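cron nightly-structures :: item 1 of 1
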Amino acid sequence: MQAAHESEPGSERARAYMALAAVQLFFGLFPVFGKLAFEAFAPQAVGAWRIAAGALVLGFVAASLHGRKLVPPRSELPLIALASFLGIALNMVLYLEGLARTNATTATLLMGLIPVFTFVVALLAGQEAFSPLRALGVVIALLGATALRWAESEGRFAIDWIGLLLLAGNALSYSIYFVLTRPLARRHPPLCVVAWMFAFSLPAALWLAARVDLTPAATATQCWSLAFVLVFPTVLAYLFNVYALSRVSASTTAVGIYAQPFVAALAGWWMLGDQPTRGMLVAAALVFAGLALVLRRPASARA
């Protein structure tokens, strides 16, 4: 009995790592299946479907697990509304519009800017202490993101600055959202916080739905690609991420972002015929190097 009890924390951690691995796989495949869905569905339509699916499923799961705690306190409503706009509505529109103008690997690489921007925003908000080494990581990662424009011009992709700026804006909006929701997740169940974010974004989904056709003529591949986007990188990714964050450290979950570009590159090469250029590899190395410095915690913080 004692041995079984002692092994329980280890099995919990193992399940958390498996959940994290699934999250990286889902997010890594998101750009590829998103590009396939875009052949029939406009980016705004995909965004509207994602918000609706997330609000419905995550709200149901949160209500089942937490009951009345799903009702947000009135004092938190302004913060929830702001965070919801930045982290769900604006974030999804910027990402999907940026993805439509670039390729899967580039879109995933630029998601590496989220921890970088989060450090900068948290520093300005007083949640992080300044570190010269981490500040250097910010500069290196931004240089890598800028180099992606040159890397794209080497290949067959007709990419302009708009797509890259939209994706960078997506990373920045999500970073601000992350800093805003950090205290919310300490005061309330994280799953309820995520459900609030999607529920408060439903007006944005209705606005998007009024601008595009939600059910255009589409092939089976395009419909299944949209279904994949709704189920895996939307609903399951958020659920698995909340589960993992409750069992492993935030720094551990952040390291998983390194795997996403490799998943996207392999899937993009196999399913879309996207071949990374030499310049893209250089840009990726810069983004990864900057990200590693930003994610490196000072010795005092680790202690």
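cron nightly-structures :: done
Residues 2-302 form one domain.
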